From TrEMBL:
Any single Pfam family the record assigns to this protein: GDPD
Domain GP-PDE: 54-311
Name the record gives this protein: Glycerophosphodiester phosphodiesterase family protein
InterPro entries, sorted: GP_PDE_dom, PLC-like_Pdiesterase_TIM-brl
UniProt-listed Gene3D superfamilies: Phosphatidylinositol (PI) phosphodiesterase
Length: 331
């Protein structure tokens, strides 16, 4: 009896191995998709950062002139190799969608109050560089340089025809998702499927309105990851992993069944994009985008998933060289 148990266990282990063997997966062409978080922006110190803390007063000494979520920063991101630029939107009282990260105006601008409780006509008068300081308030290097630079979502799409954007819907209400859907349709701003994320309510609502959309939420990503870790050995792709984002922390890849080729192939077949992030156990939130080129050195030359990038101006050119040269050398 023990002999049969051992043989059965061995056969099961072999079957699981072959089911998830990356080297047996189909080799598909492609290159990594670079997602530039906020475009090119002023990065900041995350040490002891609270969820609602102002980040404009924590920026490092500026190394470039770009401010997040502006047309200039988006252009710079595309120039650096971004395939998709992530941006943040708030509905406004006059029917627009303002492209701006913060829930309130107090941190970055001279204005005050909740962003979505103002009209776009007013938001256009603000200086979005007003609050930035790298030395505790002694100097404000961008003050006076950001007046009128907060764009509308329509301006973004009109200025970058054919480019791809990932929209972060800051408002968590179902009506916000419906309003965004109408806004995009009435102004005919999309040439392809919508790419967006927000809370679970907005994700579900947009999925009903746009079945072909690429959508995710914090909840869907968590459900996808945990369920795949439990069931992925069988080749099963959980529903939460379909038509959205699948997070692959750079220190967790060993635990993702079929990593890299088989795993990516499964998610692509399910309509999803694998996104590599940086995992830092002692950092606020645990996971963030890629800041340094060396953080992607663990990826194989033929990796074709996505990279969530914080400093596209340095990571973009490095990734282009790495994956182009290494892929050529492996031929």
């Amino acid at each position: 009896m023990r002999k049969y148990v051992l043989l059965g266990t061995a056969a099961f282990a072999i079957a699981v191995y072959l089911t998830n063997a990356s080297w047996l997966a189909e080799k598909r062409p492609g290159k990594p998709t670079l997602i530039a978080h906020r475009g090119v922006y002023q990065t900041y110190n995350r040490e002891n950062l609270g969820r609602d803390d102002c980040t404009a007063i924590r920026v490092y000494q500026p190394q470039h002139q770009y401010l997040e979520n502006t047309l200039a920063s988006m252009q710079a991101a595309f120039d650096a190799g971004a395939d998709i630029v992530e941006l943040d939107v708030h509905s406004t009282t006059d029917g627009e969608f303002a492209v701006f990260h913060d829930w309130t105006l107090d941190c970055r601008t001279e204005g005050s109050g909740v962003t979505r409780e103002h009209a776009m006509s007013y938001l256009k008068t603000l200086d979005i560089g007003y609050g930035y300081t790298a030395d505790g308030g002694q100097t404000f290097p961008f003050r006076g340089k950001g007046v009128g630079l907060m764009p509308t979502l329509e301006e973004v799409y009109r200025n970058f025809p054919g480019k791809n954007f990932l929209i972060n819907i800051k408002g968590g209400h179902v009506k916000e998702a419906k309003k965004l859907d109408r806004y995009l349709r009435e102004r005919e701003l999309l040439s392809g499927p919508l790419m967006a994320y927000g809370n679970e309510k907005t994700r579900v609502t947009l999925r009903e309105l746009r079945p072909d959309a690429w959508l995710f939420s914090r909840d869907s990503v968590k459900q996808c990851t945990y369920r795949y870790l439990i069931l992925g050995w069988s080749g099963y792709v959980p529903e939460a992993c379909r038509n959205g984002a699948v997070i692959a922390p750079n220190t967790w890849h060993w635990a993702l069944w079929g990593w890299p080729d088989r795993f990516i192939q499964r998610m692509e077949d399910a309509g999803s994009m694998v996104m590599v992030l940086d995992f830092r156990a002692r950092s606020p939130g645990g996971m963030h985008g890629i800041y340094k080129p060396e953080q992607i050195d663990f990826l194989p030359a033929d990796y074709r998933g996505a990279l969530w990038v914080e400093k596209i101006e340095t990571v973009g050119p490095y990734a282009n060289t790495k994956f182009t040269s290494e892929a050529t050398e492996s031929l």
